[in-house]
Design goal:
It is built from 8 helices and 10 strands. The chain has helices at residues 45-52, 74-79, 96-106, 111-125, 140-151, 170-185, 220-227, 232-243, and strands at 5-16, 19-30, 34-39, 60-65, 68-69, 81-85, 158-162, 189-194, 205-210, 213-218. Helix 5 (140-151) packs parallel to helix 6 and helix 7 crosses helix 8 (232-243). InterPro entries: AAA+_ATPase (IPR003593), ABC_transporter-like_ATP-bd (IPR003439), P-loop_NTPase (IPR027417).
């Protein structure tokens, strides 16, 4: 991790009428950092991500992602990031290999590069025996790990993960986080949203959103010290109670 900021948001806001789903949030994310974007369901995490990845225009404020402006350079942002979520689905009626080939083409990779990446990915995930099976036949955990790997096909500067471990078992969640660590070690910035507060412990820094606002931002260790509690779940509960 370096001191170079690859995401900068200043007073970023998204309003729907009088309701502010994201209310003037400001933060920075460094290159190679695992940045946790935490909060309960409905806190505004997904809305914030949509603005950062260029698919939803902010109502006000500023943001720069991978060196590009979220208002005027959304296509450049999309070329330099990866994205996956719990709801993001690979094509169930395509095989593992066909999905990798398809998304490699979407990301603009050459045929040679797609072949190389496909062989590498299948080998790393240990999918040799099922690479010709339909993705729809795979367990959810395997789908999520494959989705994450596909989001890295084009070597993006930043990967946005929106609730990536929802619905998977604890063992698969741990394996998934091992993949996240590996990507971060190779210089990829990981921006991950989750409502699993224990996953905050795996992040370099975390922000906690409550009702559209960032109410806390620091390392897990410092947040626990600040609020004099033993876990990140306790930090979140204390924040929620104070705001109520």
């Amino acid at each position: 991790m370096t001191t170079q900021n690859v995401i900068v948001a200043e007073e970023l806001t998204k309003a729907f009428g009088d309701f502010k789903a994201v209310n003037a949030i400001s933060f920075q994310v460094k290159k190679g950092e695992i940045f946790g974007f935490l909060g309960a369901n409905g806190a505004g995490k997904t809305t914030a991500i949509k603005m950062l990845i260029g698919i939803s225009k902010p109502s006000s404020g500023q943001a720069n992602v991978a060196g590009f402006d979220v208002y005027t350079q959304t296509e450049s942002i999309k070329k330099n990031i990866g994205y996956m979520s719990q709801k993001f689905a690979l094509y169930d009626d395509l095989t593992v290999k066909e999905n990798i080939t398809f998304f490699g083409g979407i990301y603009g990779l050459s045929r040679k590069k797609i072949r190389e990446k496909r062989e590498q990915l299948v080998s790393e995930l240990g999918l040799e025996n099922i690479s010709n099976k339909l993705v729809g036949s795979l367990p959810l955990g395997w789908k999520q790990k494959l989705s994450f790997s596909v989001s890295l096909l084009h070597d993006p500067k930043i990967v946005f993960l929106d609730e990536p471990t929802g619905g998977v078992d604890p063992i698969t969640r741990r394996q998934f986080w091992e993949m996240i660590y590996k990507a971060a070690d190779q210089g990829t910035t990981i921006f991950v949203t989750t409502h699993y507060m224990d996953e905050a412990e795996y992040c370099d820094r975390v922000s906690i959103m409550v009702d559209g606002k960032i109410e806390a931002l620091n390392t897990p260790k410092k947040l626990k010290e600040q609020y004099k509690v033993a876990s990140m779940n306790d930090v979140f509960l204390k924040l929620a109670r104070n705001i109520e």
